[in-house]
Amino acid sequence: MRIAITGGTGFVGHHLARALLGKGHTIVIIARGRDRHDPNVGRLSGVCFVEIGIGDQNALADAFSGCDAVVHCAGINRETRRATFQSVHIEGTRNVVRASEQAGVRKITLVSFLRARPHCGSAYHESKWEAEEIVRQSNLNYTILKSGMIYGKGDHMLDHLSRSLHTLPFFATPGFSVKRIRPVAVEDVIRIIEASLCEGSLTNATVGIVGPDEITLDEAVRRVARVTGRRVMIFPLPVFFHYALARCLEPMMKIPLISRAQVRILEEEVIEAFPPCDQVTDKLRPTIQFSDEQIRLGLPEPRGFGIDDCPCL
């Protein structure tokens, strides 16, 4: 198959590209730039790298020409002057869908978020939901994956937790109630995407994806600290403190330590899809546990945060 991946140099995108290449597929990577974690993915044999964003429907249609499927991974977790939730999640998805229809693509798989929903007061959640609705209302064979927190090499979760622990010996959780999460390994997510593309699974379906382990956020931090050999003191702080911190860090850091969207995600837990949706079959259900070994595989090189993470300073 010839498969296009938007956001193909991002975390999920580059893992997917390498996995599909290994199965003999031809890949078209759509991205504005190269991935800092995997800068060579766009140069691999069998990859066509198209350096465009998702704002130009006609350019996307040209890139999708001859493709059997499109996997729409492009997304953001904070807004900037150049990229807003409206422009990326909503208008960008509309462009991707229309370009897919224009190019004669048969299948689209959208990577969304577990708790994406309307009228919840979060622009991130609401824009992700609207993107889902655009895909559901299209003329394409679709699969929508409402995924929980995805972790693995090059992610945000393990990367920033590790670097935080190498910078400071403490971690503040949002709010005073226990927060539960079900981290899902990127390998499990890739396996489900492959099934939606190549096996005819999950046709015209919206499915929730979470990992097999339900743990507290505190326990996740402790596991990462143990694997990195760092001591950590964990304590709660009011949610408003985290929102204030995120508001300060978003314009300062290349990739913020935490964004307002991520505070909202952690504030309401990440253990089940809402609104409720279908679940994957037993064959496709994620099985990789959030173990020390799996954490170790996903950790970046040990280093803390520094001045180079804040280019505006």
Strand order of the largest sheet: 3-2-1-4-5-6-11-14
The CATH topology name of the largest domain reads: Rossmann fold
Strand elements, count: 14
Give the helix/strand class: alpha/beta
Q: Low-confidence stretches at least 5 residues in length (pLDDT < 50)?
A: none
Q: Specify the CATH class of the largest domain.
A: Alpha Beta
The helix fraction, in percent, is: 25-40%
Which word captures the global form?
A: globular
Instruction: Tell me the strand percentage band.
Output: 15-25%
> Alpha-carbon distance between the termini?
46 Å
**Biggest sheet, in brief?**
8 strands, parallel
Q: Going by CATH, what is the homologous superfamily of the largest domain? A: NAD(P)-binding Rossmann-like Domain
How many H/I helices?
A: 10
Number of structurally distinct domains: 2
Q: What is the alpha-carbon Rg in Å?
A: 19 Å
Q: What is the CATH architecture term of the largest domain?
A: 3-Layer(aba) Sandwich
Mean pLDDT: 94
> How do the SSEs run, as a string of H and E?
EHEEHEHEHEEHEEEHEEHEHHEH
Task: Describe it.
This protein is α/β, with parallel strands linked by helices. It folds into two domains: 2-150 and 185-209, NAD(P)-binding Rossmann-like Domain (Rossmann fold, 3-Layer(aba) Sandwich); 157-179 and 213-270 and 287-304, Alpha-Beta Complex (UDP-galactose 4-epimerase, domain 1). 37% of the residues lie in helices and 18% in strands. It is built from ten helices and 14 strands. The protein has helices at 11-22, 57-64, 85-103, 123-136, 157-167, 186-198, 217-228, 239-249, 260-267, 292-298; strands at 2-6, 26-30, 47-50, 69-72, 107-113, 141-147, 150-151, 170-174, 180-181, 184-185, 205-209, 215-216, 233-237, 278-279. Helix 5 (157-167) packs across helix 7 (217-228) and helix 7 (217-228) crosses helix 10 (292-298). It is globular.
